[in-house]
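Predicting holo structure, heme C bound.
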Amino acid sequence: MDSFELNKIAGAVLGALTVTLTLNAVAGLVFGQHEPEKPGYEVAALDESGGGDAGGGAAAAAPIEARLAKADPAKGEAAAKKCGACHSFEKGGAAKAGPNLYGIVGLKHAHMEGFGYSAAMKATTDKTWDFANLDHWIENPKGYISGTSMAFAGIKNPEERANLLAYLNKNSDSPQPLPAAPAEGEKPAAAGGEKGAAAPAAGGGDFKALVAAADVKKGEAVAKKCGACHSFDKGGPAKAGPNLYGIVGLKHAHMEGFGYSAAMKATSDKVWDVDNLGHWLENPKAYVPGTSMAFAGIKSLEERAALIAYLNKNSDAPVDLGAAGGGDAKPADAKPADPKPSEPAPAAPAPDAAKPAEGGDTPAAPAEPAPAPQEGAAPGQPGATPPAEQPK
Ligand code: HEC
Ligand code: HEC
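Done. Tokens:
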């Protein structure tokens, strides 16, 4: 196009901005200035993509362990009123639209005999409800089990979920011990501390540490599982999937001209980092419901860590796994992850500055606050359920 056309476009953009600013100013005068209740947070969640994404959604939240340590079961009991239309909570209570939830923490998925669970939920009966997966589930049921019949949008407020979990845990014959809160790195920024999200959640740091310590060679071997669909060399072609050279630090749906699914494209404001890659590779369909990547996921935490260590190294600008955590991470076991003198490229910052969603998705949620050996290493994972279970 010629420069005249460019000028016209620039003019149009400026015009639109001016109108927006003016409207904002007027709205400000009329309605008073409001802080958005949750700056950036909701934007980061994949709400439009049909079911959303727990990984991104939880991005700004402190790890569940830390939130539970401060949780208030009395407030949680109040929050549980949101569930009361469909669930009873007392011991031996009847099923309503949903199953009874007495003592749910520590019970198996689809625990209530005779209740008409969805096929998607029944496919996960090898898993046990624990704090981490309940947190994920309550935030976004369809993001956790696409195809669930629980018609509930989810509770986006991380503190509210923690309170609710504290209540659910107490409402039991055998309450579970609360998982230990991360000793350090967790800022007591608490209340609505989205800004504090600039400092990554400590749970994320744990996985990062695993990746930092992982065996890159092993990861390269694991990457053979991806080779049918992905090339890894610089400038390599797309196959069934996009080229993955330098993927850590690139945007979602980064490869120009590749035919991504609508679901993946809807997340193109997010940057791939160690934590969300961990989540994605564990269960692609849970991370991006509606993705076209037909891959069940890698259930072994060690394999994922090694694979991501390899993906990170296979790059012009590997992310510094020791320090990319934003200062909380100790350089303690700082291995020379990056042999070159080149600057470590922190996973995300600049690109996101474009949108209002400050701190949206960078230090992604602790994909797995991984307290105990996670249940669900078995193949009956949600992501492994037939495609018929897609949310839309
Ligand atoms: C509109 C009705 C509805 C609401 C509201 C609702 N649920 Fe559910 N819930 C269901 C249904 C239906 C199922 C079964 C889902 C399936 O089989 O896929 C379910 C399943 C569950 C399960 C799994 C139980 C098991 O046996 O594995 C948990 C846990 C749960 N709900 C918690 C909650 C909580 C906590 C809330 C409130 C924050 C809530 N639900 C709100 C309908 C609801
Ligand atoms: C059966 C083919 C297939 C296999 C096997 C597969 N992928 Fe994919 N992958 C795809 C497709 C297709 C997409 C695009 C998904 C979409 O648009 O929803 C994709 C997308 C991705 C993306 C996002 C890239 C971007 O530009 O945002 C990453 C990262 C990724 N895959 C990693 C892997 C890794 C690592 C493995 C091996 C553990 C793997 N994939 C195995 C087909 C595959």
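The chain has 16 helices and no strands.
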